[in-house]
Amino acid sequence: MLLRAQILALASLAAGGCGKNPSTPPEARELADPGFVSAGSVQLNYALTLTGDLAPAIAGSYGIVPRRNLALLVITLSPANRVGTERLAAIELSASAVSLIGDRQALPLRRVNEQGGPTYLATLAVRHREPVTIEIRAQMVADGPELTARWTREFYLE
After folding, report:
1. What pLDDT digit, counting tens, does each position of 16-31 carry?
2. Is residue 21 a part of any domain in this protein?
């Protein structure tokens, strides 16, 4: 009798765990980074793109030779109300790449003066499926707010 009760209890537990088909896991979330941050009346815009994905005319205009494992960081600052294509210059601007294990590399930014204002560029070697975190800090005026952006990207090179 005790054996029969144990078998019945075990069968009940097994049946309870095997009810309906388990639902499939949810889909991975889409990349939701907006590509900008705002503070006060200023907006910091940023993008990190593989140079191989750039149109040759665009890469050439910035003096960049596209490579499979080279990414281009582009930073612009603009009025937050964004009327027109006006871009602003920063009194302080820095960018860093942080590896998966926490190694920090300062990215040397190059200022390119274009119609409408400056664009800041840096290149960064990336590896297949190795996440890299980019941190940007900008300040427009000495006592003004600091704009900061931090996001992580992973590239598929193969």
Report:
1. 555 555 566 666 555 5
2. no
SS3 of the chain: the string is: CHHHHHHHHHHHHHHHHCCCCCCCCCCCCCCCCCCEEEECCEEEEEEEEEHHHCCHHHHHHCCCCCCCCEEEEEEEEEECCCCCCCCECCCEEEEEEECCCCCEEEECCEEEEECCEEEEEEEEECCECCCEEEEEEEECCCCCCEEEEEEEECECCC
pTM of the full predicted structure?
0.76
Q: Is the residue at 20 inside a domain?
A: no
- Structurally, how many domains does the chain consist of? 1
